[in-house]
Amino acid sequence: MTESQYCVAGFFFSLSLPDGQDADRLLPSFRPFLCEKKPQEESIFQLTVLSEAGPEIETASTLLDRTLNDIGYTSLYAFSGGYQVSISPWPEGPQHILQTDREFTQATATILWTDPYAGHILSSMLRIIFSQAILNREAVSIHASAVYTDEMGYLFLGKSGTGKSTHAALWTSVLPNCELLNDDNPTLRLQDGQVLVYGTPWSGKTPCYKNRHFPVGGIVRLKQAPANRFHSHQDTEAFIDLLPGCSAIRQDSHLYGQLCDILIQIATRVPVGMLECRPDREAAQLCHHEINRINQSY
After folding, report:
1. What is the DSSP letter of 30?
2. Dist. CA 28–CA 22, nearest whole Å
3. Residue 39 pLDDT grade (very low, low, confident, very high; cuts 50, 70, 90)
4. Which of 2, 36, 6, 51 is nearest to 22 (CA)?
5. Helix H or strand E encompassing 168
6. Is residue 103 classed exposed, middle or buried when 0-12, 13-18 and 19+ CB atoms within 10 A define those classes?
7. 275/278 Cα distance (integer angstroms)
8. Which end of the chain is more exposed for a tag (fewer CB within 10 A), N or C?
9. Nearest to 56 by CA among 77, 39, 41
């Protein structure tokens, strides 16, 4: 086995692959996050990819969710010792398997290396484990586009197709010194009374893998509309804006409870709002102006 260690959002984790499999080749987006090995107790989780099939899942498992997404047909099961994720490129096809304990600290996987997207599957498995493991550490993985300017980070949320990437691109074209931090799955973390946004190895179809972080200046949910209007949200409205884009197993009351606690704290510490918008420069200018106005009143 060959072992690699990474640091994402300040959290260390390790990956062990069978001999003959190269982490650098399989996970090019992780290169900026590769780090020196740390003592095992500093890692939040370890994923070991087995050279052959692992133990069969218990027959008393419960299907929690089944979806078709960018990694294929994905099924999530719960059993007495933890969780299993099965990923197949087509219905009833061969499966990549991930098994993890309930705390998401120890995980094993079997990957079909003949699959041309094996590296993408491995990256997705690491994202699944990471997004659950950090909930115990006041951090959350969120489906958003994130930019930074003037040493502050800003996040744009919304359903797929809403225009998150488009709005982020408008910010980088309208505002001087504004750059993209991550275009799909940044991490939010509570640290020393601040909310910080971190770049990660998971950036969707946009190759933007920056190992950087910034205090959050604002979080905005986008809604397509014929006119540009900004609505500041607080308390329950702000919580509702944040919740849909966050990664947590909703059926796990402990993980879901921790997610809710984190979002309540985030919603009280940074501006949150809804932007009804067209895909134009005026929308970016309005959004930036309104967030700065709210920040000045904090």
Report:
1. G
2. 10
3. low
4. 2
5. helix 164-174
6. middle
7. 9
8. C
9. 77
Q: For the chain, give percent helix, strand, coil, nearest 5.
A: 30, 35, 35
| Six-digit token string for 20 | 């003959």
- One-letter amino acid identity for 21? Q
pLDDT tens readout for residues 57-99: 666 689 999 998 888 899 999 998 899 999 998 887 889 999 9
How far is Cα 256 from Cα 278, in angstroms, rounded to an integer?
A: 34
Strands (E), 50-172: 62-69, 72-79, 82-88, 96-101, 106-110, 139-141, 145-149, 152-157
* Alpha helix ranges (H) inside 107-252: 118-133, 164-174, 235-242
For residue range 216-262, list pLDDT tens digits in order.
999 999 999 999 999 999 999 999 999 999 999 999 999 999 999 99
Residue 55: per-residue pLDDT: 60
Give the residue carrying structure tokens 């979806």: 67
CB 183 within 8 A of CB 163: no
Amino acid at 52: E
